[in-house]
TrEMBL record:
SUPFAM superfamilies: IlvD/EDD N-terminal domain-like (SSF143975), LeuD/IlvD-like (SSF52016). One of its GO terms (cellular component) is cytosol. PANTHER family: D-XYLONATE DEHYDRATASE (PTHR43661), PHOSPHOGLUCONATE DEHYDRATASE (PTHR43661:SF1). Residues 75-387 form the Dihydroxy-acid/6-phosphogluconate dehydratase N-terminal domain. The gene is edd. Residues 414-607 form the Dihydroxy-acid/6-phosphogluconate dehydratase C-terminal domain. Catalyzes the dehydration of 6-phospho-D-gluconate to 2-dehydro-3-deoxy-6-phospho-D-gluconate. The keyword Membrane does not apply. Pfam families: ILV_EDD_C, ILVD_EDD_N. Keywords: 4Fe-4S, Carbohydrate metabolism, Gluconate utilization, Iron, Iron-sulfur, Lyase, Metal-binding. This is Phosphogluconate dehydratase. Belongs to the IlvD/Edd family. It comes from Rubrimonas cliftonensis. [4Fe-4S] cluster binds at C162, C229. Its EC number is 4.2.1.12.
Amino acid sequence: MPAPTTNGLNPTVAAVTDRIRERSRDVRAAYLDRARRAGEAGPVRASLTCGNLAHAIAACGPADKAALTSEATGNIGIVTAYNDMLSAHQPFEDFPKLIRDAARAAGGTAQVAGGVPAMCDGVTQGQPGMELSLFSRDVIALSAGVALSHNCFDAAIFLGVCDKIVPGLVIAAASFGHIPAVFVPAGPMTSGLPNDEKSAVRQRYAKGEISRDELLKAEMASYHGPGTCTFYGTANTNQMLMEFMGLHLPGASFVNPGTPLREALTRAATRRALQITAAGNEYTPCAEVLDERAFVNGMVGLHATGGSTNLTLHLIAMARAAGVLIDWDDMAALSEATPLMARVYPNGIADVNHFHAAGGLQFMIGELLGAGLLHEDVRTVAGDGLSRYTQEPKLGPDGELVWENGPSESLTTDILRPVSAPFQKSGGLKRLDGPLGEAVIKVSAVKPERHVVEAPCAVFHDQEAVKAAWKAGELDRDVIVVVRFQGPKANGMPELHSLTPALGVLQDKGFKVALVTDGRMSGASGKVPAAIHVSPEAADGGPIARLRDGDVIRLDAAAGRLEVLVEASAFAAREPVAPDLSANEHGIGRELFAAFRAHVGPAGTGAAVVV
């Protein structure tokens, strides 16, 4: 077990927190001052003119109108990412009515302030629309900002689950940090075809062994109903973060949709949102929840669970919105101190329902608190102290919601282990640096013998060219596949998850295989070593643009190095390749995002436009 300090906090966690606090001192102070001044303005509806307020409540019923003209009534702004083509978001269709009813019962009101877009990376994977995916996070933040700009709300409830949606909503919540923000999930779908079986079917299809009809049948058996996809990708990593960072009610993340417990949690979240407004006795503005300790807790949770690499971008952007400056070095240091406690697909064969049943986040938070790896003394929407999140929600004999102490031991150590006997002593993510720049790699699902790969590279400028070369047998060898000009400036930094089956087949043939890219990989990827988010990106003149076919690359996850074994002066003297990227500028909405590509920041600062 990692040794805690005399005050109970692990020395690495303490040191990283201190350096983040010092690094952020000025920007955090300015942020908190803005939030404080906004909060001191008092109930926001009081500042509206009669005409403003009349417009805001014109569509309300008589009882709500009477309540909303009283400054004593708390009013919740609902920001929803509902659409019915995302399984994870389809359950949100009925949440606004449920929230309005619960608010009225608690003496308050609630209005849908606005909607935000929610795209599904599962639909756009390998398609042109994926080039809009990362930028959708910033669009979501902007859309939520527009919704809350009506300035009629004493608290906000955010309805969102998936990949870019939660990070975008957190950025918006931080921007409106003077009001409380409660995040309400919809929960995972029930378990379907096991994820390892689905993966095997995909590889058989990639090899031409089965038909498309058989592939589709397997995919539909896996993704089969309302709720979040059950593998531990970005969506479910988001849900973990919301608990570790104190923005969910305890135990809310992985309760299935359409159940009495899910409904009870949503009603409880509504009541709690009203209790923590400035009108109550437990005022909990979002700005005070989202401090450096909360983000350290989130990073520890990311490592302990073997979560999605996408969060190495999103956490940085979310933190910056709250005046907290974190970076990949912080994540790397915390990864070394944090044990990997969970094996959930793609890091194992279990899904999130199995993880939750084994003890889930409540067991994990209790273990990490006991080892001094989490800050307990934080503000949360449930009240002060992270210990509250070791409790799990249940329905009492009369159907009322109660919280009980969570499990003190894992029910299945194949899925979830204690800090004292983890799957590995360090976390699932590592930072790489070297002559090719800096990158991140997820090693929690990569076998230890594949943590170091040295091989000649094959360089491509799009994933379709990789697939063509693979089908032609040109990659049947030890190879490091380089896919460049996939960064945020080049084409919006799409995920390259559609390459996973082909690279997995090569690896299964016994070849040494790895991927190096300035693009992203899906949170569902894992077994093939992948150095991703390479920065500076090729379109920004990064060293990756100087690579040539046949250059030997060494990817060393153990040492944290990404090297090209070419004489340094000769490599530096090469002219960077500058391909024609005009094909990425138009079609499927891409022309609308030209300003985003022109102004986006680098991966190391969150690949952000709006923060």
